[in-house]
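Researcher: I'm comparing several assemblies side by side, and this is the next one on my list. It has 525 residues spread over two chains. Same procedure as the others: predict the full complex and return the structure.
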Amino acid sequence: MNYQFNWSVLWSGQSGGWLWLGVLTTLQIFVLGLALAVILGILSGALRTAPFAPLRWLAGGYVEFFRNVPLLVWMFFWYFGVPPLLPQVVQDWLFEHGVEFWAGVFALGVYHGARFSEVMRAGIQSIPKTQLEAALSTGLTVAQAYRLIIIPIALRLIIPPATNETVNLLKNSSVALTIGVAELTFQTRQIETYTAKAFEALLAGTLIYLLLCLTISTILAYVEKRVAIPGMIAQGQTGEA
Amino acid sequence: MKRSTIIGLIALVTSISAYASAETTLEKIDKSGTLIIGTRTGSPPFGYVNKNNEWVGFSIDLVEKAIVPALSKKLNKPIKLDKKESAPQTRIPLLTSNTVDLIAETMTDTQARRDQVDFSLTFFVTGAQFLVKKGAPIKGIESIAGKRIAAQQGSTNARIIRERVPSAKLVEFPDQPAAFQALAQGQVQAYTNDGIQLAGLKAKAPKPDGWAVVGEFYSYEPYGMAMRKNQSDFRQVVNVGLMDAISSGLYFEIYDKWFGAKGELPYPLTAEAKRFLQMQVVPK
């Protein structure tokens, strides 16, 4: 009556290859989604603090709209909702070229972009206003001051909350299996289908996610330490920086 | 933090195994007075939520009318039926974790699954086919090379296609509605599943005539009810319930209710299938 554990299902047959493919797909969707999220986040986070109200409203609208709807809904939106709005030729091309993967990238990128935006805004607002005023008084335009001074400083301040968002984005990539993206969680289910060994497959997936997330946090913790600005950030570790 | 996580996982695993060895299924049902089944909410007409928001279906009816009475007789007390939702990915864990006692939905009996769970006798026979837009070029498994084919995650059909037609582009969805939506919009060119389920989808579609179920059965899908391994006394009660239903004609009444001419999904029982069902009944 006991559940019979048989760990060898994870490396016998095709399982190992599937897990590897799953990890690769997860990493691809994660990297592309993260790139999109960071770009959108920096842009809209900066706009939210801009000294021009319509830009602030635009960025605010983006953030509130995208972060307040569940990610699952966004997956369906990009996969089912967007293609019919495109010309037939584009649709056919998309359908032939892995539309589910790109829908997943956009869903993750745009959703997490809205969340990154808030992190970015908090970072910018934590910089004393005098910094911007000083930059402007040297003759820089607002755009230049943001690009050359405010955003670079903010990016160095926001690494701890950004780590949070990055790890979340990786974990949320598993939602893409609902639109048929064969990522890591999908592959663990595949192994379950072939071997009827659910616990082994799920535990393997769990451990791989854990490992990936720990790697990300370790790298970002290192980066955080390297780029910390003395006196501007509460040094996470011992204050040695 | 790393070490405590690993210890936590080990604790979880051992507690699962320890919990599973407590009592036999029959003792559990006797104690609680309840048979808990895992069934589907979106697989008409085997297990689904109908227009009146009632959770019904052919598989559920079989349990309610054939197996619950057999259990009540065996245990000498009225047995209640409790339903929980199961899906291809969760049904075996639901059983092994003692959450449910019997899986009664659309589960194909396979040799690999028999390593994990035991099956009742076969209560329905079907095979995989394709659902396409009427007039589509796909006519069966021989014409899907290079085509985009939707399948259900965790199904035996996806596995067969991957092995027999590796060039087909499989897109696997967790549930029927998503797969059907993708077919309707053209993300995929066909949706493959067991013929009976496709017939069910077609019948429920807004315009049933716009769809066609095509192709010979390219797989053999005998549906069985699954239960925890090595529970021969419980399995015996389930099988006797099903055999009595087949020999008394009750099975065919229930079949007619769901698949007869006036049923949810007209799908006449072939003479061959009827004979197969009857031959599973061993003498008293």
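Model: For your comparison table: Chain B is about 40% helix and 20% strand.
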